[in-house]
Specification:
The chain is an alpha+beta fold and 266 residues long. The protein has five helices and 14 strands.
Length: 266
């Protein structure tokens, strides 16, 4: 079978989907959330593999960072066409950059965060940090459902690794917004290890889905990047993680980090 034309993402010519591993999810897992920096610039040729990686675990909600609108649209189309998974999407683009996302120079593609949810989303808010450091940064927030319960979901990408002073201000800004919600899931690439001082407001507010990851992280705190650092977090308020896992991927320099959640209150 060969698919071609408007029924395929961006007119791409794809002969078949990538096979999923044994034990892959059969459908969306209602209590599962995931965060993944999908890497940019790594090329749109990675999108079929990215879709397969997402379909393997089929989270209810996934926060993507370093996301170009065109790439996310292609990933969503692959998920639906090849794996039968339908996701709603909200974008938190903080810049338009031809070098990052392609497009015509005067119509560069949107770049930033995206949230995919199997359930509809409401009240989307995109906020750009007052100072992103060397590149514009911000967060996206939506209201959706996880495990059948309404929840505010945040997705962020903080300033680059050597820019601690910028991240300190961004974390304070982000944590203040998230603290307004008793039930919140805060996803993202924080570009900081657990004991970095700039993350203190997050640890005062919430716990990571990996219980071994905290300001005095023990050796069991799993790394989430190809350079063996823990940069990616699923911070939880009003939930706890029943299980969590990290999966390296050949399609990004960050690993996907997922967790299955349960409500703290009845």
């Amino acid at each position: 079978m060969v698919l071609i034309g408007p029924s395929t993402p961006s007119g791409a010519l794809i002969s078949e989907p990538l096979p999923l591993p044994v034990g892959a999810a059969k459908d969306v897992v209602p209590s599962r959330v995931m965060t993944w920096n999908i890497c940019n610039p790594c090329g749109s040729a990675q999108n079929l593999g990215r879709a397969a990686d997402i379909a393997t675990y089929a989270p209810q909600v996934i926060g993507l960072q370093e996301a170009c609108v065109r790439d996310v649209e292609e990933i969503r189309a692959y998920l639906k066409t090849f794996y039968g998974l339908t996701y709603h999407v909200e974008y938190g683009s903080v810049l338009r950059n031809w070098g990052r996302c392609g497009g015509l120079p005067w119509r560069a593609g949107g770049y930033g965060q995206a949230i995919l949810s199997a359930a509809p989303m409401a009240d989307p808010v995109t906020v750009e940090y007052p100072d992103g450091g060397s590149e514009d940064r911000g967060y996206l927030a939506v209201t959706t459902s996880v495990g059948g319960r309404p929840v505010r979901v945040f997705n962020t990408h903080l300033a680059q690794r050597q820019q601690e002073s910028f991240r300190e201000k961004q974390v304070a800004f982000f944590a203040k917004a998230a603290a307004r919600h008793e039930r919140a899931v805060m996803l993202g690439d924080f570009n900081a290890v657990p004991d970095a001082p700039e993350l203190d407001p997050m640890w005062s507010l919430a716990k990571d889905a990996d219980p071994a990851c905290h300001p005095a992280a023990d050796p069991g705190c799993g790394t989430t990047t190809d350079w063996y650092s823990k940069f990616d977090y699923i911070f939880l308020r009003g939930f706890e993680a029943r299980r969590h896992a990290v999966r390296p991927s050949e399609y990004s320099d960050h690993h996907s980090f997922r967790a299955d959640l349960k409500n703290l209150e009845p």
